[in-house]
Amino acid sequence: MSRTVVKIPKACKKCFHITDEDVCPLCGGQTSKEWQGYVVIVDHTRSEIARKMGLNANGKYALRVR
């Protein structure tokens, strides 16, 4: 019987990028399991939300990270 390992998504404390890693692949910052809400950026060059959040890459980002 095989068991599936469920990875808990974490969010970077610096850039808010959501990842399964302990270190953010985008900026190298520390990640946290304590985050709330998220937004998916599809085209950061045309997104007003991405501009207001200071995001320079497409992806999934947390709205609040502790």
Secondary structure blueprint with pairings:
Layout lengths: L9 E3 L5 E2 L11 E2 L2 E7 L6 H6 L5 E7 L1
Antiparallel strand pairs: 1-2, 1-3, 4-5
Write a structural description.
The structure is a single chain. A hairpin with a 5-residue loop joins strand 1 and strand 2. The N and C termini lie far apart (about 35 Å). The strands form two sheets. The protein has a three-stranded antiparallel β-sheet with strand order 2-1-3, with no helix packed on it. The protein has a two-stranded antiparallel ribbon with strand order 4-5. It contains one helix and five strands, in the order E-E-E-E-H-E. By secondary structure, it is mainly β.
Helix content: under 10%
- What class, by secondary structure content? mainly beta
Strand content: 25-35%
Which whole number gives the mean pLDDT? 95
- Let me know the number of strands: 5
Note the run of SSEs as H and E. EEEEHE
Short description:
The protein is mostly beta strands. The chain has 1 helix and 5 strands.
